[in-house]
């Protein structure tokens, strides 16, 4: 058995291969969904940016405070 990875796009629930010439006539496969990156916050307050970063890194309040202290100490 061999494996092949192809780039695909999903358009209204239909999977469309970027390079159709690489697809076999028949076969089976697995699909991994890559979530699109969330665009960075634009022009928001520093607190909003910190909250967005905290959510992205999945930090709770204590972990976020520890991380901020580490960054603060590294800048000294």
Secondary structure blueprint with pairings:
Elements (H helix, E strand, L loop, with lengths): L7 E4 L2 E4 L28 H12 L3 H15 L1
Report on the architecture of this protein.
β1 (8-11) and β2 (14-17) form a beta hairpin. This protein has 76 residues and is of the alpha+beta class. The mean pLDDT is 79. It has helices at 46-57, 61-75, and strands spanning 8-11, 14-17.
Keywords:
single chain; 76 residues; alpha+beta; 2 helices; elongated
Task: Write a brief caption for the model.
It is built from two helices and two strands, in the order ββαα. It has helices at 46-57, 61-75; strands at residues 8-11, 14-17. Strands 1-2 form a two-stranded antiparallel sheet.
Low-confidence stretches: none
Number of helices: 2
CA radius of gyration is: 21 Å
- Coarse morphology: elongated
What value does the average pLDDT take?
A: 79
The percentage helix is 25-40%
How big a fraction of the residues is strand? Answer: 5-15%
Please identify the structural class as seen in this structure.
alpha+beta
Give the terminus-to-terminus CA distance.
56 Å
The strand order across the widest sheet is: 1-2
Number of strands: 2
What letter string, H or E per element, gives the SSE order? EEHH
Largest sheet at a glance? 2 strands, antiparallel
